[in-house]
Structures are given as C-alpha cells and as structure tokens.
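User: Lipopolysaccharide assembly protein B, Kangiella sediminilitoris:
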Amino acid sequence: MEQWLLYGVLALLPLAAYSGYLVGRKQLKGKQGGSLSSNYIKGLNYLLNEQPDKAVDTFIDLLKVDTDTVETHLALGNLFRKRGEVDRAIRLHQNLIARPQLSSSDRNTALYQLGLDYNAVGMYDRSEKLFKELLEDPAHKNDSLVQLLNIHQLTRDWDDAAKIAETLQSSMGVEQSKPISHFYCELADQKRREGDNKAALSNLKKALNINPDSVRASLLQGRIHLRQNQYKQAIKAYQRILQQDIAFLPEALPDISQAYSEVKDYSGYKQFLDKSLEMGAGVSVLVELSKIIQKEKGDKAAAILIGEFLQERPSLKGLQRLIALHIEHAQDSAKPSLQLLDDIVEKLISRKPRYECENCGFHTKAIYWQCPSCKEWSSVKPIKGIEGE
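Assistant: Predicted structure for Lipopolysaccharide assembly protein B:
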C-alpha cells in the first residue's frame, strides 16, 4: 500500500508542478495570488503526506478552465483513467465540457476523452454516441472510427463493424479486408445457427468477394452445403482451401471425406489427397491417405508411405500412425514396447498446442479466428513441424 501511494505521489508531482506554474502565471497577471498560492501549497502538502486523493481534489479546484489549463485537465483525466479511477476522470471531463467558454476544438477533445472513460467501464452505448458525434470533426474522425470499430467488435455487432471498417479503410487507407471478411463470416455463422442458410451463404459470398483468401468462409460454406446434402458444392468449397491456406485443410478433412463418400467418388478423394500432399499439405492428409493405401495394398504399403514422408518431414503424428501399422504385425515380445511407445507419443501429442498466433505467440489447442490475446484477425495458424503438421 505504501509503495502504491509513493507511485501515486511521484506520478502527480509533475502535474502539480505544471499546475503551479499556470496558477503562478495567472497570479502575476491578476495580482490575486494569496489564496491560490496557499491552496497550491496545501495540495503539495497532501502529496508529501501521502494523501493523493485530497491533493487531486485541491488541484482540480485550482485549475480554472480556460485556454491555458485545458491540457492540464486532460492530462489529469488521462492519469485518473490509467489508475483505474474512471469515475473521477468522467467527472473531470464532464465538468470541462460544461464550461461555456471552452473552444470547439477543446470541447471535442474532452468529448473524445470522455468516450474513452465510458469505454473503460463498459458503458458502450454512451461512448458510441460520443464517437459518432465526433465523426463530424476531421481532427477526431479517424480515432473515433477506430474506437467505434472496437466497440462493435466487443458488442458483437458485426453488421455495424463491417460498415465502420469499410469507412475506416476508405478514410485512412488502412487495409481492412481480412477483418471485414471475418465480420461477414460472423454474421453467416449467426444466420446458420438460426437456420437461415440462405442468408448465411449470402454473407459468405460477401466475405469471399472482399477477401478471396478467406479460409473461414470456405469452411463455413462447405459445412452448410454438406448439411444440405449438396455434396458437390461442398467439395468445391473445400477445394478452394488448397489455394487459400493449405495449412487449414485438416479442419475440413472429415467433411471432405464424407462428401466424396456420399457421391461415391472414392478415387476422386484419393486424387484430392495426393494433390494436397504435392502442394505441401501436412501429416493429417498423409495419415488419411495411408488409410486408403492400407485398404488397397495392405499395411506394408501404408507403412512405406508414412516412412518416406517422415524421413523428409519428421512428425509425432506420423510416427504414431507408423507405430499403429507395425503393432499388428510385431512379435508378441515386441508388442508391449511398441504399445508403450504409442502411449508416450499420444501423451506428447495431446499436451501440445495445435495453433499459434503469428503476431503475439499465443498458443492454443482450439482454433480462434481472432487471437484472444492480441485481438488480431487471421493471425492464429496451425503449428507446423515435428509437433504439428
């Protein structure tokens, strides 16, 4: 507690000194320095006596709002918000905005800061109203657009998020195609859960028009077609993943297998897997192909396929598949050792994350289209290498 108070004192001293300078200058101009000077000293005494709350109140009283002290108010409000004293920041900014002599520019700056205060305590309806008002001010338009975009994402208002992101892209020239496509995917997923597949597919079409490399849109589109027994359309949607980002293909493999099976195109599925491996697909595709080879040519041919792959691209998942192929044909004396090795590999695989954020390094076993840590869209990717694909 004492350490916290010390930090508070140190944080407020520069602001107190600046406030004193402004007050002193006013005193010289107006020759009314007695009471102000004594209040300023009183504020410093509060700081030195580790009473920051009383010191802050004293300095607020000292700051007469005019063109010379607006910046000090804003700095003090920002300090309150960073310290978690958002109620004080709100009170200060509201008091500032209420002053009739405040210039339009300073009022808008105070409004923006008040919007940040409301955001900090989750009062998004109030902050949204302020930021929308500030869209008319060129000096605050872009910052307000960024804040509105954050609000709509937090409140999962994906339709408005897409509109704001499009405005932000045209206003600032900042590329927003990836997040916009995800907003339409979010809308599509909502409609899918509500049973409105037509609206879902319409939103996915928008997502792909904005970002043709949207793996998420292809996955959702394929899933919807599959549930509607539209197997050829599902296959077509899933095939796009090869060009979009082949690392995500394992997410679709069970559905792809089902779609080819429903249309009885078994050779087509095998060709798809072969092509995928040629294009750099990971070990999950290899394991799937080995199951087909096992049925057609036996365990030995499947084991040879896995072994050749592992020589170039070592993989725990591939090793586990190879062990499984050998257990059935191993001598009784060797089976316990192979089973133990299989158990060890299984534990290693189960403990390892499957995905990693390329932006912040966040690890996870589940797929996230927006990183929970850094909030970046499309940054979480499947892990490659011996512990991944």
